[in-house]
Amino acid sequence: MEQPQVTPQETSELLRLAEAALSADGDFVELGCYRGDTSVLLQKLLVSARSDKSLWLYDSFAGLPEKTAEDASSAGTAFRGGELFVTKREVVEKFKKQNLPLPRIKKAFFEALDPERDLPGKIAFAFLDGDLYGSIQTSFRLVVPKLSEKGIIVVHDYNNPELPGAARAVDEFLAAHPSFQLSQHFSLAILKPVVLY
Ligand SMILES: C[S@@+](CC[C@H](N)C(=O)[O-])C[C@H]1O[C@@H](n2cnc3c(N)ncnc32)[C@H](O)[C@@H]1O
């Protein structure tokens, strides 16, 4: 059986943060859903909380794009273009098997998404798991303008030496957006807008 992409410790922190985001305005999004393992847990949370929020999932369903110079790593050559290929149907079947409401699932490279047409009007919780510099950078561009005041962004692979582009995209984002504060839990970068009361 394939290893989960997110460790159990990360998953429990992710769900704790998602639960905290239930009180924020807007929907939940996951950019880079792959087989839907985390997506199913987010949907279960929404169902058990009787939330009226929707879950929106995004993936190329064609595997990873090619790495760019920012992703170069001496720690290994995994995560090549086309790796992590799954079909949208596999994700749909996973939700059906678990009797869960189907999320909105968009098959596209993030770079081709239209924020007005393809993303919710407001976002309460965003899980960015596109692995690569360009994918995380694009995810920020799509999500941040829609993030509600008490919204939370979680980026995976913040300390993964095989995927240095993810941390680079986070650090560059933070340098350009001092209104966000960072905390870290294992490989999760947790970004929250600084809310002044
Ligand atoms: C590590 S997997 C996601 C794992 C998933 N979040 C989970 O918790 O199980 C990364 C996914 O991001 C997708 N991805 C990466 N960059 C992308 C891009 N620019 N556009 C669309 N999908 C992308 C890949 O196809 C892959 O399925």
Overall mean pLDDT stands at 96
CATH class: Alpha Beta
Bound molecules: S-adenosylmethionine
Q: Please outline the major beta sheet.
A: 7 strands, mixed
Strand content: 15-25%
How would you explain this protein's 3D organization?
The structure is a single chain. This protein has six helices and seven strands; from the N terminus they run αβαβαβαβαβαββ. With 197 residues, the protein is α/β, with parallel strands linked by helices. It has one domain: Rossmann fold (3-Layer(aba) Sandwich), CATH 3.40.50.150. The chain has a seven-stranded mixed sheet, sandwiched between helices. Helix 5 (133-143) links the parallel strand 4 (123-128) and strand 5 (147-155). The site of S-adenosylmethionine has 23 residues, from helix 2. S-adenosylmethionine (SAM) binds at residues 5-6, 30, 32-35, 37-38, 59-60, 63-65, 84, 109-111, 129-132, 135.
Topology of helices and strands:
Elements: H1 8-20, E1 27-31, H2 37-48, E2 55-59, H3 88-97, E3 104-107, H4 115-118, E4 123-128, H5 133-143, E5 147-155, H6 164-176, E6 180-185, E7 188-193
Parallel strand pairs: 1-2, 1-4, 2-3, 4-5
Antiparallel strand pairs: 5-7, 6-7
The chain binds S-adenosylmethionine.
Features:
seven-stranded mixed β-sheet, binds S-adenosylmethionine, globular, alpha/beta, Rossmann fold, 197 residues, 21% strand
Outline of this structure?
The chain is an alpha/beta fold and 197 residues long.
